[in-house]
Design brief:
728 residues, alpha+beta, 9-stranded mixed β-sheet, 8-stranded antiparallel β-sheet
């Protein structure tokens, strides 16, 4: 409800300001409008309940997946532990047999029997072998459950060659049956194999990752140890387990409907996976297919499991306990449950990747069905709410925002009153009009264009500054003090007309008025907005201001008043620009030597009888885009070194309408002669320049007097033709 007392006060204020209505209509409050939108909260509440229920379901599902993973990891741990224990037991049994001298490694018949017996007693073992220091090798390999190979490699050290003998046996019930014997050349040197080298460097059994066997290349792990009998080194015992056997075990594990499991090492390499076993069954044990198998696994496991690792900032080597994540893959945008469980052997981990859809399929179907129903009713209600919100709130607020943009950009004349049937928006619009009215008066006291550009650049209103390449211009009216004394109060409209003519010219020329100092103007180019042509723009504006002042002078003469004359000083440099002042009051301005030089140049016009002087840096940056004459070299007040100063004549495009410029060359010739101490010749050149210029040349006459003085009293030997100014 509206408050009657407040409404009456606001109505009185509105009528007093001339902007109130003759009769105020009742308008609903913004709160009433918002109450309409609360109807949508019913749907929001339903949605929150649904999503909360879904979150609980996912939490329960996560517990279920954790239990499933624990079961899978436990079975794999048992299998790996069993395989490792069998290999360790076989290696230790063979070592004991040799050490107790039951048989010797050289006893071929008994050796084959022992190797065969160990292989048949341990189904998980793939190889049992022995390597001699001279490179000889003997081993027994189990090929599935149907055949066994006895492999002997006799190494010829002298010729760096070996002969390989392979005896094939067929496994029959309770015995084996010889099938065939093959002899081939080989390069297999037992003493160079990783399992041999690692065992030689250790004083206890060690595990190795291997892939090279005398008959084939297949990934495997092997435990090996040194054999010494009666203190004499005999060779290395090696028991190997092909990783394919672990892959076959993993292939028998059901991981949900579409899940997968693998064993990986600390570097992320695939040790065993169901896909490897399946590929092996289809394509044999060909080495060339191993890379294809690993690629297939990485597509399914690495791209999800490893991506999850990186996403959560983990590395495999950092996982020392079971870690699980609910992760949405960027590969297919599906949700997965990813789990890593350490196996406690060789840095291996069990990695399981289970699509959440395996468990959430039915939930998601029901959710989609409910979403369609809710969405249908939501769409109907949303359309009605959107239409109402746009008509009642959105469109009026956009108009209010547009009015605020006008205020933000100091375009106060564009702010208009907006009528709305919502009382809050109607009051807000009225407040904006009052604000614009107050700011319209305030903006006359500040440089509006400068404020607008500062806002555009996002420069914060606090003390601070930075060095920028800019150009500074100072202007001053000649004889304004005498004119003020003569006109008294009547000088105010004259000054106002002058400043009103100059200000737009500066703004249109991309300049910013820094301040008015009585009849003087200080303007900047290149700040706060960058301007690579700041020097040229300042020169153009200076010429335009002089031309405008000439037009203003003609108007003044027509009214019986004396025309005004203006002196201009321009200088460029890398100048400190920023908010200068205190926390309570700031002035965006430029300070430094280059600014002082611009002020001195403006004052020097009086000495030389010129209108516009520019510094040598301004001359350099503007280049051939301006017409100037080299006027003198001066050391301004407060400076010891001389700087070149130039009189700004015009622009090349204006040359046809300018007076003949031959006098400039004569003047600069006289200046060079003057610097060379050829004062008589300099006087002739200056006189010629004075005659050549239609209305005479005051600087030439000034140098004539200087040259005459030096002819009477010659300058000292270290004289540099620099005019030293003793005053500002």
């Amino acid at each position: 409800m509206a408050e009657p007392a407040t409404e009456d006060l606001e109505e009185s204020a509105a009528e007093a300001a001339g902007i109130g209505e003759a009769r105020r209509r009742w308008r609903p409050s913004l709160g009433a409008v918002l109450m309409v939108t609360l109807l949508l909260s019913v749907l929001l509440t339903a949605g929150l309940i649904h999503f909360s229920w879904q979150a609980v379901a996912r939490g329960n599902l996560k517990d279920l997946v954790g239990q499933l993973n624990d079961k899978i990891a436990g079975s794999i741990q048992q299998e790996v532990a069993s395989v490792i224990a069998n290999a360790t037991a076989a290696q230790e049994a063979l070592r004991t047999i040799f050490f107790q001298n039951v048989i010797t490694p050289q006893d071929e018949a008994k050796r084959e029997f022992i190797f065969l017996a160990l292989l048949q007693s341990q189904p998980s073992l793939s190889w049992i072998s022995f390597g001699w220091p001279d490179g000889h090798f003997f081993g027994a390999e189990k090929l599935g459950d149907e055949s066994i190979l006895m492999v002997e490699v006799t190494w010829d050290t002298a010729h760096k060659m070996a002969q390989r003998r392979v005896d094939s046996y067929k496994v029959i019930t309770g015995d084996i049956e010889f099938e065939q014997r093959n002899f081939t050349d080989s390069q297999f040197d037992a003493s160079q194999q990783p399992w041999y080298v690692r065992a030689m460097a250790a004083d206890k059994p060690v595990w190795s990752d291997i892939s090279q066997f005398p008959t084939e290349t297949k990934p495997a792990i092997a435990i090996s140890s040194q054999l010494e009998v009666y203190g004499k080194f005999q060779g290395i015992i090696c028991v190997a387990i092909e990783l394919e056997r672990l892959s076959q075990f993993l292939a028998g594990i059901q991981v949900a409907r579409n899940g997968t499991v693998a064993i990986v090492d600390a570097e992320g390499h695939i040790v065993a996976a169901p896909e490897l076993a399946e590929k092996s069954d289809e394509a044999g044990a060909a080495t060339a297919s191993t890379a294809v198998m690993n690629d297939a696994i990485r597509d399914k496991l690495n791209k999800v499991a490893m991506e999850a690792l990186h996403h959560f900032g983990m590395q495999l080597g950092q996982i020392h306990a079971t870690m699980s994540w609910d992760y949405r893959s960027t590969v297919d945008r599906d949700d997965y449950f990813v789990t890593f469980t350490p196996l406690g052997f060789n840095g291996w981990l069990v990695a399981t990747v289970i699509p959440a859809s395996d468990f959430l399929a039915e939930v998601e179907r029901n959710t989609r069905r409910l979403a369609w129903i809710v969405g249908f009713f939501t769409l109907i209600m949303a359309n009605g709410a959107i239409w109402f919100a746009r008509a009642a709130i959105s469109r009026p607020l956009r108009r209010v925002i547009a009015e605020l943009r006008h205020i933000e950009n100091f375009e106060l004349h564009r702010v208009q009153r907006m009528n709305s049937f919502l009382s809050e928006i109607d009051r807000l619009s009225g407040a904006l009009v009052h604000m614009a009215s107050g700011l319209a008066s305030f903006q006359k006291y500040v440089p509006t264009e400068l404020v607008r550009r500062l806002l555009k650049q996002g420069i914060e209103a606090k003390p601070g500054g930075t060095h920028l390449p800019i150009t500074v211009m100072f202007t001053d009216l000649a004889g304004f003090t005498a004119l003020s004394e003569k006109l008294g109060d009547a000088v105010v409209p004259v000054l106002a007309e002058y400043l009103s003519r100059m200000s737009p010219i500066i703004a249109e020329g991309r300049g910013v008025i820094d301040k008015f100092i009585g009849d003087a103007i200080m303007a900047l180019w290149g700040a706060p907005e960058p301007n690579p042509d700041h020097a040229l723009d300042a020169c153009r504006v200076a010429l335009a201001c002089q031309q405008a002042l000439a037009t203003l002078g003609l108007e003044a003469q027509a009214q019986g008043r004396l025309p005004l004359k203006m002196r201009v000083g321009i200088n460029s440099g890398n100048i400190l620009v920023g908010n200068i002042g205190s926390e309570e009051r700031l002035n965006y301005t430029a300070i430094g030597d280059s600014v002082n030089v611009a002020s001195r140049l403006e004052a020097l016009n009086k000495r030389y009888g010129t209108a516009t002087l520019i510094g040598e840096e301004t001359r350099r940056q503007a280049g051939d885009a301006i017409l100037v004459r080299r006027l003198d070299r001066v050391a301004v007040y407060g400076k010891k070194e001389g700087i070149a100063i130039y009189e700004l004549i015009g622009l090349p495009a204006e040359r046809p309408r300018l007076e003949p410029l031959g006098w400039i060359a004569l003047y600069e010739q006289g200046l060079d002669l003057y610097a060379q101490r050829k004062f008589a010749e300099a006087i002739d050149a200056f006189k010629a320049a004075d005659r050549e210029r239609p209305d005479g040349d005051p600087p030439a006459r000034l140098f004539i007097e200087r040259a005459k003085a030096f002819m009477i009293v010659p300058p000292p030997p270290n004289w540099m033709a620099v005019t030293v100014l003793a005053e500002k």
